[in-house]
Design goal:
332 residues, six-stranded parallel β-sheet, XdhC_Rossmann_dom
Amino acid sequence: MEDMHRILEAAAAAGELPIALAVIIHVEGSSYKKEGAAMLLMANGERIGTLTAGCLEEDLAIRAKAVHAEGKSSAVQYDLSSEDDLSWGQGAGCNGKITILLEPVGKRLRQQLLFLKEKLDKGKAVVRIIRLTDSLESNGDLYIAEDGTQLGSGHIPFTLQAGWKEGPLLLKEAEDFFFVHPIFPAPRLYVFGAGEDARPLVSLAARTGFKVFLVDWRPALCSPENFPEAAECVVGSPEMALDGLTFTKRDYAVIMTHQFEKDRMILARMKDAPLSYIGVLGPARRTERLLGGRTAPETVHSPAGLPIGAKGPEEIAVSIVGEMIRKLRGRP
């Protein structure tokens, strides 16, 4: 699961336990994580999310307590590029300059995090724009959801309020800096078919950040007991399920009912929908038959999965999730 989604789950459940939110706002050179990576620091010492390969988390934990006590945000820059400085984890993937914004988690920020979680849970992306002074202290921020609703304070230039395609990045506007941070819902994966081979796929996909919906007509198979990591188990015919679904470009699907007519119907209904990925289990020749000899759209991948010579349900799950992640990250 993406760190931000884990952070929001923790913030919603923790009451007053979180003390600070750490966000990377600028990177020069190489780093373990890039701009937008976040970590929630808890009062009991727990940390949700990662920023580096352990290079500076201990120092951040100390600074977080001070930020929380003062009730004031603070930016700190770590220079991990010096060959003489071995204290910051040289050789652990930390070789650049990293600027991190530490914000105390008080009533206002927690309310904003809950707003962010609510929107993401509804499938709406949110862009957060943080206004920063020359010394990179927070001076207001604004959350703008994809549905047009807003939360926050401080004047944000209108030109930055359409920041969906921009960030995460740090910009200079007039006398201030602005950190533009688009945050997207977890990608949804629809798995059609609750056979034994679906178990490792659902489990691995859920653990790598996909919100998994399992669809099958057999209640004895399609259940939370069999698929505890699925966000929802939808029992009913594929036709019924598809009638109630609206797909977006952030959605993924894998067709694996192992019944030709059901697979054919599902693929016929989905092939022209605006999904990012449709994986069809089985050889390409079978998929050609499912399509009635018609050319498959670019979104249809058959056989599903990267060509790594996978054998067995677990390896096939790895190949399919790997292919979906490649698509998610925009890799060719």
